[in-house]
Amino acid sequence: MLERDDIVYLAEMMNWPGVLNKDPDVMAKIAAALKRGKPVDGHAPGLTGEDAALYASAGISTDHECFTRQEALDKIAAGMLISIREGSAARNYDALHTLLADHPDKIMFCSDDKHPDDLIRGHMNDIAARSLSHGYDLYDILQAICIKPVQHYKLDVGQLQTGDKADFVVVSDLETMHVSETWIDGNQVYGQNQVHFGQVPIKPINNFTAYKVQPSEFIVPASDQKQPVILARDGEIVTEMDWVQLPQQNGETLADPSRDILKVAVVNRYEKAPPAVGFIKNFGIKDGAIASSVAHDSHNIIAVGSSDEHLSAVVNLIMNEKGGIAAVQPGKSDVLGLPVAGIMSDRPGVEVGKAYENLSEMARNMGSPIKAPFMLISFMALLVIPKLKISDKGMFDGETFQFMA
Fold first, then answer.
1. What sign has the CA pseudo-torsion 303, 44, 234, 223?
2. Is 113 in the same domain as 257?
3. What is the number of domains present in the chain?
4. Same domain, residue pair 241 and 337
5. Per DSSP, which regions of 176-309 are E strands?
6. pLDDT score of 87 more than 80
7. φ and ψ at 196, to 5 degrees?
């Protein structure tokens, strides 16, 4: 794949334990990119000091997962570029934006998983306006957003130089950075509040085996032992781990919504298999469930809910659509189907954004305090990000890199 001209870099080397331990498959992928002069993108939340230096020494040149200033400084010292990320679930701008003053030549900006409803309101232009309001130099900001990424990743994007393709946006003013026009390759694709191209017809490709699940499949057998609980963090994709004694009834270990401890389950979408079930804290749902087939990286169905009945109902909504995001609560349910690979919609962006916002509002009405619950839930199955996550094979310790017994 790296021989292809349209694949210009190796994206997101998430398996940082594999890099530090020189796993042969991981090192072969990095070597294949470097041999062809293509950058290797990093993804190593929490790595600092010698570990950060060792990770960078493998030839990895960027990271967008820093959540403290010191972590970013350690990676800059190791020779890496830092992409300051402000997505929907993971927001690191407040912790890192001062780096733009100290190391403007080492900074880029990115969003990395931005909700469709958030995209309607703004994207990199919002980051530009926010940075200007802090008093940073306009050209440092534009370099971080418009120039550094194009140069680093060797993208086929014009930079307003003589002979370049005419790729640019026009903003109405330098305070709000509101985009009034967008031009690509000399063609105006947006202007006068109108998109100037039609919807691209597609034939959805979707590897999805749909089947019904029953509430009984989400039962966790009773145990007098404490249970491992994922401690989710609003605004972060890293988690913590706790051990909690949970209520027992009729031979079952129950969720405890009164303490904000819910069940979390992953259901295999590629073949019929028993769900993996665990427990999670801080989603705040009192009576109901949410689920998504956007669940990095395998994109199985992941669900969080207060009862087995709600979990089965919300998973079956997604099964019926062969992919989507969904919410259920007593007397109400909703689903946004994602027919393209089970992770994308073929509907217009504004329509998708409104549907997404309606589902997020349902989650908030169930008691969730999380700003982006569907984005956060999608990361709970991302095993390479510490500390505790869950896959269709069970709960996984991201620090020992082993499934929980």
1. positive
2. no
3. 2
4. yes
5. 179-184, 187-191, 194-195, 220-221, 227-231, 240-244, 248-249, 252-253, 261-267, 276-281, 289-292, 301-305
6. yes
7. -105, 35
